[in-house]
Design goal:
The complex is a heterodimer of chains A (254) and B (319).
Chain A: E1 2-6, E2 9-11, E3 19-20, E4 23-24, E5 31-33, H1 35-51, E6 54-60, H2 66-75, E7 79-83, H3 93-104, E8 111-115, H4 126-134, E9 138-148, E10 151-158, E11 161-168, E12 171-175, H5 187-193, E13 198-201, E14 217-224, E15 232-235, H6 240-250
Helix pairs in contact in A: 2-5, 3-4
Chain B: E1 3-8, H1 18-28, E2 33-39, H2 43-52, E3 57-61, H3 65-68, H4 72-85, E4 89-93, H5 96-109, E5 113-122, E6 125-130, E7 135-141, E8 146-150, E9 165-168, E10 181-187, E11 200-204, H6 214-224, E12 227-231, H7 233-237, E13 258-262, H8 268-274, E14 279-284, E15 297-300, H9 303-318
Parallel strand pairs in B: 1-2, 1-4, 2-3, 3-9, 4-8, 5-8, 11-12, 11-13, 13-14, 14-15
Antiparallel strand pairs in B: 5-6, 6-7
Helix pairs in contact in B: 4-5, 6-9
Chain lengths: 254, 319
């Protein structure tokens, strides 16, 4: 089974986010493989271990994004593709999907895996746009995967529970954090990742021009929201329960 | 003049997803025409309500192809309708299905999709919030149609008493769009009031330490009466409680009178789903937890000790 996993290099979500003009500051800050994508990498690895094949990681980003690919390779993925181009600096979700589709479509594949949404932008539309560009079905919010010969059965999270969806390969799935427990990279994995191939591609390598990825949405203004004022914060010294109850009574809900 | 469409999800019994009614109310306040598109069993029945909330035209089809298959048939129908009628703006409520449909449609139309929208400022300008809702971001979009995926409860739904002209949708759905099939539907029905409607919500996070401790929340909810219990994504993903209890970016958006956050640190993912609460109480061991920055009352302490005290106190007050 040829499995492609989309990965994103993002500013470390455990550090306070910084702005660079109207955009999230990405350069000169500590970056990591999006924690949401670790579930995608793990899902790919588990399918490969059970059914054979190869796991390819695909990313778009500045040269530093190769770090995110290395992380996935050290978990056990086989190879990486990084699309990097100055013209992509301000790419929106539509442009990103177009670029990833071009990179993924260069070789045959059975399954494309992505996280449900990125941890930094959390728009959540990119995987579906990608699936449409690749002209394949998609099943988002997968919390359980059961591949069989030629098709896959997925439990897809819904607002009130889950649906069971069946689909033949090839298709795209997005996985929730409930789908698996991502493995840690072993020392051996980290060492061997250094020798695994990472192909670097530019827009022209993919037959795309700057016009194809022109941004169609731009931030024009950032304004501070009307802040909720922090109220009283007290240390519980035995009367925390009473304080909460008094508050509920003041709010007339009891 | 702007033509705005609202894509409305519908249940088999003709029940319209509430977000669509909020979007119709907003669309009606903008200059121009308002239409709704509703696809799947129950669609024709839903047209009446969509008209009452402001759609002058409703494109409807009761064909089960739209609910039996994931995303693609609806995308295909919307695309063909869009090609015929050229709306300027298509609004989607941010649900599991609609976000997928908007994403796919963006590839077909080559026009931009923006999600997490919290306000619509004009035909080509919308607002979202970042950093846990502390910063508002205004975005200009270029293309046609512009696709906006709007967070539920961004607008209040108000009926206008209108009536819609119902136009049957007849489009050919290609075989290639029928591959992903819904074969089973499971509802994890929660007992008690719905999170969306409850006056008081008690929500739990990782700080509760283990799944079993959620019963402390249930007990307090029962003592208060009419309170609902919710959860963060972290504990839902950990399998402690069902998905139907999830509040946040993915999950439900709630606006109760009082929100009691128990053992919740206050990740952006969670905050965006509950910051509309009138009053917020937070109980957490970590005094640096971001949740305290938006809480009206913060208690730094052990929730496992404090919750039973509250339950007892509430019971005592109610006699």
């Amino acid at each position: 089974m040829n499995i492609v996993v989309c990965v994103k290099h993002i500013p470390d979500p455990n550090l306070p986010p910084q702005l660079d003009g109207h955009r999230l500051k990405r350069e000169g800050v500590q970056g990591v493989l999006d924690p949401g994508d670790e579930f995608g990498v793990e899902a790919g690895l588990q399918l490969k271990e059970a059914h054979g094949g190869e796991v390819t990681l695909v990313s778009m980003g500045p040269p530093a994004a190769a770090e995110a690919i290395r992380k996935g390779l050290s978990m056990g993925a086989d190879k990486g593709i990084l699309v990097s181009d100055d013209a992509l600096q301000e790419a929106d979700a539509l442009a990103t999907a177009r670029v990833l589709a071009a990179a993924i479509g260069r070789q045959p594949f059975d399954l494309v895996v992505a996280g449900v949404e990125s941890t930094d932008g959390y728009t959540g539309t990119m995987p579906s746009t990608l699936a449409e560009f690749l002209d394949i079905p998609q099943i988002t919010f997968a919390k359980h995967l059961e591949p069989s010969d030629g098709s896959i059965t997925v439990q897809r999270q819904t607002a009130e529970g889950y649906h069971v969806v069946e689909c033949p390969f090839p298709l795209l799935i997005t996985v929730t954090a409930g789908v698996n427990e991502p493995r840690y990279a072993s020392f051996k994995g980290i060492m061997s990742a250094k020798k695994k191939p990472v192909e670097q591609l530019s827009l022209s390598d993919l037959g795309l021009s700057g016009d194809d990825v022109a941004r169609k949405q731009s931030v024009v203004e950032l304004v501070p929201a009307e802040e909720r004022k922090a109220g009283e914060v007290v240390r519980d010294d035995g009367d925390g329960g009473r304080r909460v109850t008094a508050f509920l009574a003041d709010a007339k809900v009891i | 003049m702007t033509t705005t469409w609202v894509f409305a999800e519908v249940g088999a019994e003709g029940k319209v997803e509430p977000g669509a009614l909020e979007l119709l109310t907003k669309a009606r306040s903008m200059d121009g025409d308002v239409a709704a598109v509703v696809l799947g069993p129950g669609a024709t029945e839903a047209a009446t309500q969509l008209g009452e909330f402001g759609a002058t035209t409703v494109y409807a089809s009761d064909d089960p192809v739209y609910s039996d298959h994931v995303a693609q048939p609806v995308t295909e129908a919307l695309y063909q309708l869009q090609q015929q009628h050229s709306p300027d703006l298509i609004l989607f409520s941010m649900t599991y299905d609609s976000r997928d449909i908007a994403g796919r449609l963006s590839a077909k139309t080559g026009s931009p999709v923006m999600s997490n929208v919290t306000d619509i400022l004009g035909p080509d300008k919308a607002r979202t919030a970042i950093f846990g809702g502390t910063t508002l971001v205004d975005v200009e979009l270029q293309g046609s149609p512009i696709l906006l995926v709007v967070r539920p409860k961004s607008f209040a739904a108000e009926a206008s008493g209108g009536q819609a002209n119902v136009v049957p949708v007849e489009v050919q759905i290609p075989e290639t769009a029928l591959k992903a099939v819904r074969v089973e539907r499971h509802e994890e029905t929660a007992t008690g009031p719905k999170l969306e409607d409850a006056a008081v919500i008690i929500a739990g996070g990782r700080g509760l330490q283990e799944a079993d401790n959620f019963k402390l929340l249930d007990e307090l909810a029962a003592a208060i009466g009419g309170a609902a219990v919710g959860a963060t994504r972290a504990v839902v993903d950990a399998g402690w409680v069902p998905y139907s209890m999830q509040i946040g970016q993915t999950g439900k958006t709630v606006k109760p009178g009082v929100y009691i956050a128990v053992g919740i640190s206050g990740a952006t993912q969670h905050i965006v789903g509950m910051k509309g609460a009138k009053k917020i109480i937070a109980i957490n061991k970590d005094e640096d937890a971001p949740i305290f920055q938006i809480a009206d009352l913060g208690i730094v302490g052990d929730a496992l000790k404090i919750l039973p005290q509250v339950t007892e106190e509430v019971k005592a007050r109610k006699g």
